[in-house]
UniProtKB/TrEMBL annotation:
<dbReference type="InterPro" id="IPR023214">
    <property type="entry name" value="HAD_sf"/>
</dbReference>
<dbReference type="InterPro" id="IPR036412">
    <property type="entry name" value="HAD-like_sf"/>
</dbReference>
<dbReference type="Pfam" id="PF00702">
    <property type="entry name" value="Hydrolase"/>
</dbReference>
<protein>
    <submittedName>
        <fullName>ALPHA-D-GLUCOSE 1-PHOSPHATE PHOSPHATASE</fullName>
    </submittedName>
</protein>
């Protein structure tokens, strides 16, 4: 029996990040400079299960929490335009890397269609330099953490998520629980979402998915609001049971 769900999706503007020097000089900057960001979220109070605070927050990572250097830094590293990079790279090598089906050495061997060699360590350093928190995100995560929300990464990314962790210490705020390289599947494969629910042992409606991309929910939980390029915003949607069987999300292209 088909079940229609109507879900409201809400865009949440992010607050400015205070300079680290300000943080060091003023230990209570959060109390003095910020209103509780968590109040901006469409998070209703739910009954806790076994003292577990609900809802559980599931964060996409790239371009939701962390700047994605692939779109800005990788083509210049190779001395190419982005169009040239997309035309010359192997069509599935990065996807296989994200799913953990090849390691980084195998990625290097097949990254380009013509199998040209390149400086793998140089590419990793390029990526590492490009990782940074998006404006306002670290304060958001800190505020949610202080309010005792359980948070997990839900991301299509290879083992290089460890490079992000080494630089940004994201595990201070959330757990790297659901990476495609660990699960062997990528969003929007329903098997990925089934693994999330199996691991968390909660009803899907007790989770909220947070992403920068409208396609993550378009056609899954209802129509998306109009897109805006003026300020970085994120899309907050309840985790829909329909994600477990039907999804129209277009995977991020690498």
């Amino acid at each position: 029996m088909a079940v229609a769900l109507t879900v409201r999706a809400v865009h949440v503007p992010l607050k400015k990040v205070l300079p680290k020097s300000t943080r060091n000089n003023n230990l209570d900057y959060r109390k003095k400079k910020m209103m509780p960001i968590v109040s901006s979220f469409p998070i209703g109070k739910q009954q806790n299960v076994n003292n577990r605070k609900l809802p559980i927050l599931l964060f996409d990572i790239m371009d939701t929490i962390v700047r994605d250097p692939f779109y800005h830094d990788v083509a210049p590293f190779f001395g190419m335009s982005f169009k040239e990079l997309m035309e010359s790279k192997h069509p599935t090598a990065w996807i296989e890397f994200e799913e953990g089906r090849v390691d980084e050495m195998e990625l290097a061997e097949k990254f380009f269609k013509d199998k040209r060699s390149f400086d793998l360590e140089g590419l990793k350093n390029c990526m590492r330099r490009g990782y940074s928190y998006l404006d306002g995100i670290e304060e958001l995560l800190c505020n949610l953490k202080e309010n005792n929300y359980e948070m997990h990464a839900v991301t299509n990314y290879p083992v290089w998520y460890r490079l992000i962790e080494e630089k940004l210490n994201m595990s201070t705020y959330l757990s790297w629980t659901f990476c495609s390289c660990m699960i062997g599947k990528r969003k929007p494969n329903p098997g990925f979402y089934l693994e999330v629910i199996r691991h968390l042992k909660v009803d899907p409606t007790s989770c909220i998915f947070i992403d920068d991309r409208h396609s993550a929910s378009a056609g899954v939980v209802g129509p998306s609001p109009p897109h805006t390029h003026k300020k970085k915003k994120i899309l907050v949607t309840p985790f829909s049971p329909l994600m477990l069987g039907i999804s129209s999300e277009s995977p991020r292209t690498y």
